[in-house]
């Protein structure tokens, strides 16, 4: 619509309705206001194919609802992250089609139906890491990627990890979720060829310092090909993985 | 070659040269020694198309040379990272075909000729970040990716960043390198659709704490789609970006 | 009144009522007690035009009330910060003219009516940063500055920030409030000419470490002209901004 | 010049030289390239009246010289910060009019002659803090502010601080520089009405952790009106102070 | 059973039921799936004689129960650590033979009857350290080690420590538990000849930073022979000590 | 009583009841058990004149009561620190003579009547620091020192501090309590001649990191003569101050 | 001399040479300039009996010399701390009576001859801690205290500590110096009745983090009566100890 | 010799040469001086079979030599750790029989000939970790343990680790040395039954923070049976491992 606004202005210049000075003024301001960069925004939504995500913490339930309402009204599928049960109920009340993924603390309304791009595989180390892993897996699915899960495979029992080798080698991107010493991404990255998105979790106690130990370990991975997201950032990991996997189906450039 | 070793053993079992017990023993040990997991290794080299990299620090010049010699002998292109001038000279003396990329502290011998996969774009914030950015760019090139550079675009002067928009939007993966407050990846990720690999650098002073400030900022990016590597880890960033960009040319799965 | 006390003493010396020794004693003690430095205090109130502020945490409700009572009695407008609802109710009960700004956790009683000095603009990055931003904005207003708000403008969507350019360029001082990666002040400072007071918030999770990531990012801003206050310190930011903006209307020196 | 470029385009549209489609394309790209935001830049230089500053560390001597050359050629006064003696000599060789402020590690070429705006007062705690204090003072002077220095006034000897009271009370902005426990800004801010820019220095040992102790102390100042810059960031402190003091002489808005 | 699976395959190769290609395929996959490493697992259980342990936090009560049920069904004794009262009650309801060690937050079901190997001695510094010490002692007992406790012996009262000298000198391994300054392991290690497993606890306040002070002190012990586990990690300390003490009764190699 | 035990042994040796070997054995063990070091303990109580203190956290109410009962039974005055109201009530029920100092979270039973030694002065910066200051003051009083309090004297209002100069100069030891930037001890130490015991408190928010900022500031005090205790450690500060002040009345050595 | 200045003024008022207004002006300024607080200063020197100390780092050799010259000229004994050999030589050249204590990095010129007050005992843990211990001991001696040293007594060999018991029990104040785990002060404080000044040193490696481990341990000492100074702060420890010991000889108050 | 001293005293008591009072006095002091605890010392050397170790840093070359001389004179084998080449040469000059292990920075003079106890296996992750691994291996050998090395087995290439399985399973104790993400001990502990002593190294860069990342990872190992020593603490790891392995050959208790 930027284009149509500009076309209008050009027409007005041409037919003399708008003088040079006024045209200059409007052109200078245009890109900073609601035209130029809205195009960027539109472009993003278009190419990313990723509907907007609402991060719930720090917003009142009413704020969350209002934002969701507006997005639904504009036909956008919505993913709300880190929802507590009260917000989930409120959303369910107003949007009965919403789905509450409890362990992942996500609510989705609508979403991308068609699975496209490469496979995203989510592996996680312990039972307690599953909520974060699910947040990643559901986000990637919401963004349209085919997703496989492979959970509870800690490095202290390599035999549990290896049955997943074939699966992991089919992935376009692997999300590796681990707390405590955070060694899983290093071991996984040594076994596969695709990029590994590492997610440290706050699972652990004492000197895990709320996930700091796992975070540092992942940043220092001796295995090339590992990139890291914030502690417990399942959503962002699923998002990155989906972007990577989508590249797999992109047209040649 | 694993396969041929196994074929030999199977033949020997079949013609009775090797008895059941001995076959059992050899099979049990095989995968842990130099056969089963060497296949994994081979597989990695094959699929990743990434030749081995030698991280020079902590190795004596002679150790570096010996490793490089063996790799060259086996026909593998070699990338040596974090080389100081002395090591570079030693390598140049023994391998005159070696190329020393001084600011990036890399020495490459051989490499992948054909450019393949999606475009990798490396953006960096300040002049002092260029060595790390170059390490990323050269690594991605070494791994066979087409690479474009776009340097010296700090967030305090957005006008310098925006001329690169078209370039960045053609990327399959962007490497964003920044020290100090490390805000570049957030701004970049808000403008494009591809994944962004963020590299914090140790550029800065005082409360930058050797790159910690930039690292934390990048991990906390409010823009989805950003994953982070270690401080000054240009090599790993280039490696991850190349893996991501390669997905772009992979066969459909 | 110091002056009058001193004048009395001088008179008493002159007419011999007070001897040299006693005069010496009283003069030596005077400035340390309740005279000399009370003048300083008076001077501060006078020039700063900033009424006293009561920081509620760590004080019992009764202590807060007692302090407020005394200040009201002396005709001073009062700002109470970080009030919880119980304290606000107690104050409302005793001082029906008090105003409770809930999201900013402030209670004001009285205040400066006339707006004077330059414009203070408060910008904030996310919805969750608004309480801190409001604390800053209300404080600056309470101190007499004209204030404009411009909220929800994160660096991952520059198009949302730019419509505020004109507003920001009219400011005598900008307060920039952000959590997570804390990049907003750098971007803002690159666009304007006035000083920017950066306020990191504790909004975020994981490696934001309660606002530390944003704090470090702001301290390391590559854009000159940014100064930083404590995490979530909306009050102090508003106070500093008001002091800066007031300079704008000061008499030439 | 953006305006003239736009005027050309409008003229071309009007006389039909440029068609609608082409005009649309050029208008869409214009602001992101070298037009719209270059105006911003120009605007900044104009209003801030602050010539560009070159931060030397991480740049080769030749890079520094090249940048300085280009700036001098365009008639801009230059301030180079954190220069080591070698770079200073190189600059002196090519630009004999350059001035090397050794203890502050600054080289200035040209500068603002006329002193304007309010007074900047720089106070510092110990002898070892003087280089950082000088960096602040010289920067503010370079930016055109009248500056007064008041050094070696630690909080453990209040009597040394108080003779400067009159001076400090005439300031439009005070820069307070201190290492170790960093208490000076709190004490100063309690005595004056203007904003205080606090600069922690890395002076100290042991648990000063390179200035962290002073930084944290300043961020937690119980005295309102204190904002903080990075450790040893004399340049930025002088810059902020000059911006604040300049407000003092600005036209009413 | 790996051996028997392999024997079957060898027989099938020999009698021609399985062709070379298929044999190659199955052999390549075998060790990564459920054969080779399951043997490792079996081996571990066998040699360690340590039944599985279920770490309760991060698991739902139902998950804990399900895991315990399966383990009991397979005849394995079970130790559940960090149980809250609700989980303990649930387990008691379904497994009346379970024993709840409240202060140590452990539930054991079954366990090793026969005491074997060297003596484990658990010493602790303060009353508040006893829960962690008990977790260590009960774990070591559960693993079959004879255990003696010697509690409330802080370094500020050496006379309380010394009566335990004889006991400590009979130990094959000592677990030393302490919060606050964490000095107990250093003092103990200076008095005995066996290895000391140091357990920092989160007992303390202020600059103990949740046990960090004790952890660092123990890692820096000037007394050789001290190795450290995570903060509050009573279970792991008891496990390590039991492994060490078990060596005492191992067959000569 | 050690002496009498030894005397018995000597007698037994002399009259031959105990043989040389047995005597050797008993002598070797004696000091480590319950004799030699119990003397030390006795000696401490005697000289320090400081009754035992029970630190309540981490102990069950019953454990606290049991310890107090035994101490009362042996005629020792008792100070229980960090008591919550439940424990205070329990103690009041069993020991009606107990006194609960609520804000300081102390319960005292008995105590030293006679005031002796030099004066301890407790100064504190803010209202919220008073509980810690009271813990210090009451502990010093309990230990027998004359104590004066001087509260609410922050460094941002020096005029409030100076009226206490005379008082502070009469002190044998000053306890200076402050949160936030923790500057009070530096300022105080610059004004007096006696040792200053600095107590950082956890009062503050954001980058005060639970008192860390104040702690570091105090450790880095530029004023000689300041020694520091743990965050919020009012008890230990009062204890140290009382030991120092007691020296004042000690016999010449 | 303040008194005489005031006397002059009073005389001038009385004889009419100075009018009321002028008297008011001069009286108001007096205490902040060179009169009131210089008295404080004088008072400090008088009572503390501690000559000035010059901290050399961050000062040029010429600055150090100039300060020393002025102090010597005014008859004050001087202690220069943290001197490197160059500065020591320079001082020796100009002040041949200067004494260079190499391992303690101190230069003293003049000093207090008469030993007075209680005994200061300096104990240290390892050979590498001796320079810091010597800095403490020499400072206390310089300040006039009788000092005894007792070095190389680590907690891992209690038998080395105990022969010093008698000595330590005669102390008015003990300085306990230790690196690594920093446990010495806790053990010492448990054996004596006087206050213990703990000095953490940067001796150690790895997780000692430059003395942080020892610092935290000392702050968390379970033994009452321990106060802590900065890492490697031998000078301040000796200063505090001397102040404490001096109290011992003070007149009763 | 304690025993003989005591025997003398007992004889003297018996024959009346020493009276009761004097005997009491001497007995009270005896254990604190050079008798009781020297026995402890002797006992340690005897049982531990570990000769004394001299930690060179922080000692002058002459101090090191003097200590070594005294130990050699008393017939004790000596291990000097962290020696730089100068000290090694000095020792070689005076003790030609000394052996300098360069990469491990150790000098040994004499040592234990007979290998005894269980096998110690030292595994390490990267080439740069070898110096620390060698320090551990040589220390364990020096202490008399049979030692096997298995180096350069990182977790990113599991196939390199597994050939060592048989070796590792024969160990009485394994020392696992790793920098960067420090995952090796977790993986190793999952494969074996013996205790694992984990040694983090300072190998790495950026967010490895000098070994902190590896240290935290090891402390948070999800595999039971891992205990940790200080960063780069090869000596202590070898010492602990040798103590553990020695238990293997100890008499049954």
Care to describe what's here?
Chain A has 253 residues and is α/β, with parallel strands linked by helices. Helices cover 43% and strands 15% of the residues of chain A. The first copy, chain A, has eleven helices and nine strands. The first copy, chain A, has helices spanning 2-14, 20-29, 36-48, 61-73, 85-94, 130-142, 158-161, 165-169, 184-189, 212-219, 234-247, and strands at residues 53-55, 78-81, 99-101, 106-109, 120-124, 147-150, 173-178, 196-200, 226-228. Chain A has a five-stranded parallel beta sheet. Chain A has a four-stranded mixed beta sheet with strand order 1-2-4-3, with helices on both faces. Chain A is globular and about 75 Å long. The two termini of chain A are 26 Å apart. Chain E binds chain H through residues 40, 43-44, 47-48, 50, 53, 118-119, 169-170, 172-173, 190-195, 197, 215, 219-220, 224-231, 235-237, 239-240, 243-245, 247-250, 252-253, and chain H through 40, 43-44, 47-48, 50, 53, 118-119, 169-170, 172-173, 190-195, 197, 215, 219-220, 224-231, 235-237, 239-240, 243-245, 247-250, 252-253.
